[in-house]
Structure formats: C-alpha cells, structure tokens
C-alpha cells in the first residue's frame, strides 16, 4: 500500500513546477504580453500623431477663412491676389474617379474571386491568382505613364470604338454568367428534372437574346461617342480600377476559401445546385470578407496620387453634365502633390494650410469608411452566427 502511494507521489511530482520557475514563467508571459501591447499601441500612436500633425497645420486655414469657402465654392485660384480656395470641385472630382473605379473594379474583382474559388480547377487557380496579384507590384508611376502615353491618345483618337470593344469584352462574360445563374435560380423550384431542364433551356435562350440586345444597343451608343481629351475622369477610373483589382480579388478569394467545404457539401446534400450554393450559401457566408475587400479597394483608389496627377487633366471644375466622365477633373491627392512645392512653407500662408485641410479631409473620410466597414462586418458576423 505504501509503495503505491510513493509511486503516485512520484508520478504527480513529475508535473509539479517549483515556485521560482512559476514566477519566471509568469514574468516571461507578462513581458511578452507587454511587448506585444507596446507594438500594437505604437501603430495606434503613429496614426494618432499623423492625425494630430495634419490637424495642427489644417486648423489655421479654417480659422482664417472658415468652412463655407472650402466646402461650397468651386473657385480654386490659390495664386490669385487675393487667393480663392474653393475645394468643392476638387472634392467632387475625387469622389467621381473613386466611384468610377469602384464601379469597374468591384464586379470584376468579385467575379474573378468567385471563379478562382469555386469554378476554375486548382491547377489553373495556382497560376492565375499570382498573375493577378502581380498587378499590385507594378509602381503607380508605371500605371501613370501607361494612362498618359497609351490610353489617353487612344481615347482621344478612337475612344468610341475602343469603349465599344471594352464593353463587349467585359460585359459579355458577365452577362453570360448572369444568364446561366439566373435561369438556374428561376427553375430551382421545379422538381421534375426533364421539365426543369426544358424550362431552363427556354429561359437561357430568352435571356441570351436580351443580353445580346443590351450589348448591341449600349455598344452602338459607345461606338458613336467623340472624346475631346484623353486625360479625363474615365482614363483615371479605368487605371485605378486595375490598381484596386489585386486587393479586391485577393482578399475576397481568401474570404470565399475560408467558408470551407463543409458548408458547400451541406448545401449540395440538401439538393441545391452549384449556382444556388454559390449565390445563397457561399457568398452570404463570405460577405463580411468581400465587403472588407471592397472597402480596401476603394481606399486604394481614394489615396492614389501619381496616376490621377498624370492622367486626370487637373482641371478644377465640376463636369457638365455632372456625370460626364469624358471631361478633365482634379482630385485632392493630386492637388496636394502638385501645389505643396509652390506653397509658402516658411510663413505658413493660406495656400499652405489649405493643402493640410485637404489631407485632413482624406484622413477623416478613410477613418469613417473603416469604422463603417468594421460595424458592417461585426453585424454580418452576428447575423450569420445567429446572435
């Protein structure tokens, strides 16, 4: 009996940690956690310092000139006597090229992510994704040269036919995918396979004819267009969309992959088709990650400087009509980059401080966008988890 007790005590003694060793482990854990907290806090402190120093040089402008001229006037004559600093047209130009790039990049990026995640075979995906991500490694000045030297003359000399072919190339596969998915979804409720296949074929023929009609009508309108200048909002929007594409595709594809095979196989086991599984199961489950990808892509377009400086035309006016993407515009980032060298940095003139006011506005927009996206992501996660 005593021998069993000794053996038990020896066995339990193998897991006993001395008091000194326990204190050392606690001290090491505390030190590690403190270092990680310091690193995380350092990033937050750097962001706060950037906000502070930009705001310090932006506030004098608003103290001297108020808010009305900056946000409501389109008269941007910083070298005048007296100077005029209305930034409304510049803010509008920034929103215009950002929206244009998002309209082009978001559908292409999400469609490419879905193809990479659920349609293309793995052997093709492992080559296609790195090629798309290589776009992120190209310097922005190279994109700017392409926009200025190649795309701008093409838009000016043969912009109409070029836009028509771009429309056919981009919209054709998208409409074809919409035809297949739409007909599949509309006939999903028919239980008899033969009847379901017959109705699906009829809908595909009908939707294909409608798609060709849309392609032809819009293509004809684009073919007849005359573009006066190639350095315009459309040029910048196209290039910015390609610059935002790697971010959207990469983050969205990772989010779709993280959904997992179990959810897909569960949907197939319940009788759902591939299109139903994609539209009703995979995309909703990955919606928070896809939204984060879209926000990151839009922020990439909003903060880009070199391309908009080289290819937007830098004309400080609101296009007429307001949706005319074929006119030159000016953006906040291009104005800051272009005018900072000419501003009086020694005495701190209004022309100098207004550039910091523009920088502060960009920071505030980015900060609010990130907050909104975080709120949407958290809310979506709660909905998906049933909370």
TrEMBL record:
GO terms for cellular component: plasma membrane. GO terms for biological process: phosphate ion transport; transmembrane transport. It is found in: Cell membrane. This is Phosphate ABC transporter permease. The chain crosses the membrane at residues 31-55, 90-119, 131-153, 165-187, 199-218, 238-256, 277-299, 352-372. InterPro entries: MetI-like, MetI-like_sf, Phosphate_Transport_Permease. It comes from the Bacteria. It is a multi-pass membrane protein. Belongs to the binding-protein-dependent transport system permease family. CysTW subfamily. Residues 91-373 form the ABC transmembrane type-1 domain. Keywords: Cell membrane, Membrane, Phosphate transport, Transmembrane, Transmembrane helix, Transport. It comes from Pelodictyon luteolum. PROSITE patterns: ABC_TM1 (PS50928).
